[in-house]
């Protein structure tokens, strides 16, 4: 029954997004050569509602990020090993995420202030935005992060390429198999 519900949710999500076209798909949304992962809860001069890279309200819990091997290669994943995606309709650095309403039934925002797991070096600047309603959502090089509701186990990447606008975030494989779980 759970798998049927997940399949229906995935189909609904893909149908809802089938008419969406990316306004500008970045050549590499997350390839900032030389950028290092950072996060901070340091106070900022910006207003609380503005998404300042590298800052988050003190109440934001950490969103641990790691790297996981999937059928799509080594990709960004959450602490539980579930693949993380970016949405091509989101605009880099925008305070307003494009995935709202019915989209959120299938694509789940990664909540919290992102931090790289011990031993993981990410090729991006980590930050946050504040979604309508106040939830703090993790960002990767200015793009909001999501997991896919139909990925039912760690290491799956069923959402990659969905409706042509949902994509995994490639990362280099870990130096040792101890980082990001077992593959």
Counted by DSSP, the helix tally is: 1
How would you describe the shape? Answer: globular
Could you describe the largest sheet, including whether it forms a barrel? 3 strands, mixed
**How large, in whole angstroms, is the Cα Rg?**
16 Å
Unreliable spans: 11-58, 177-183
Number of strands: 10
* Range of strand content: 15-25%
Structural class: mainly beta
Order of helices and strands: HEEEEEEEEEE
Mean pLDDT: 75
Walk me through the structure.
- The protein is mainly beta and about 180 residues long.
- The chain contains one helix and ten strands; from the N terminus they run αββββββββββ.
- It has one helix at about 1-20; strands at about 60-70, 75-80, 85, 105-110, 115, 125-130, 135-140, 145, 145-150, 165-170.
- Mean pLDDT is about 75; it is low at about 10-60 and about 175-183.
């Amino acid at each position: 029954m759970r798998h049927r519900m997940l399949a229906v949710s995935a189909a609904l999500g893909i149908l809802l997004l089938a008419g969406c076209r990316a306004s500008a798909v970045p050549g590499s949304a997350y390839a900032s050569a030389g950028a290092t992962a950072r996060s901070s809860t340091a106070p900022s001069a910006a207003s609380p509602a503005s998404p300042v890279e590298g800052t988050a309200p003190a109440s934001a819990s950490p969103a641990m990020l790691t790297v996981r091997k999937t059928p799509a290669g080594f990709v960004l994943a959450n602490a539980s090993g579930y693949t993380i995606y970016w949405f091509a309709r989101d605009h880099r650095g925008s305070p307003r995420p494009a995935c709202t309403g019915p989209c959120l039934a299938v694509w789940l925002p990664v909540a919290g202030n992102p931090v790289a797991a011990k031993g993981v070096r990410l090729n991006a600047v980590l930050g946050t935005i504040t979604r309508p309603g106040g939830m703090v959502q993790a960002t990767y090089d200015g793009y909001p992060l999501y997991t896919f509701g139909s990925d039912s186990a760690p290491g799956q990447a069923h959402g990659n390429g969905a409706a042509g606008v949902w994509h995994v975030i490639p990362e280099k494989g870990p130096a040792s198999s101890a980082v990001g779980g077992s593959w």
